[in-house]
Amino acid sequence: NAGVMQNPRHLVRRRGQEARLRCSPMKGHSHVYWYRQLPEEGLKFMVYLQKENIIDESGMPKERFSAEFPKEGPSILRIQQVVRGDSAAYFCASSPGSSTGENYGYTFGSGTRLTVV
Amino acid sequence: KQEVTQIPAALSVPEGENLVLNCSFTDSAIYNLQWFRQDPGKGLTSLLLIQSSQREQTSGRLNASLDKSSGRSTLYIAASQPGDSATYLCAVRPNSNYQLIWGAGTKLIIKP
Fold first, then answer.
1. What is the pLDDT of residue A32?
2. Cα–Cα distance between A107 and B18 in angstroms, integer?
3. A33 to chain B nearest CA, in Å?
4. Which has fewest Cβ within 10 Å: A43, B27, B35, B98?
5. In angstroms, what CA-CA distances link A100 with A31, A60, A103, B30?
């Protein structure tokens, strides 16, 4: 019973390139959340997705960032034209239930550490 | 607006000591509170989840308490070991919301 799987673990991109981060939720989980941890800072919510739906992207920068969770396959966080300030650890979590009314904890993946050079 | 604070930011103690990490939050309307461990360059490991109706949870040498009315949680680590060295993060899930609100963490070093 694999946990939340994220890949790659480490990603190096030059300024201006695109970064694609993948997240496969735990088996039976249909809700995915992305968080970003900037160096020496706490984690911040980015986006919440269900299969084929973006539920809340209020934490996503308005430009260059996008996320999807297709019917088949992992959730993808895409960062276009990366800049040095995008360097951070990106964590994905999954949960089994709906967004409200259910009292569950979150299971996190190991994260993807993006370095922009 | 919910804010989560963890004190101290860093802690270094000799092996074998019992220790307490603190987490405070400003809004008592929460679903639950979760303690995580993060090792350098690694992911987040969930340690304990306390529901809003619970007062404490225990797992091995770890015990977490929750006092909603005062907006506080503590993580108690008994008989600390060098392998406990890590950053400990507290995260609150507000009522009717799925977003976790995180503290900045306590960096713990256990000296052999």
1. 94
2. 27
3. 8
4. B27
5. 12, 21, 8, 12
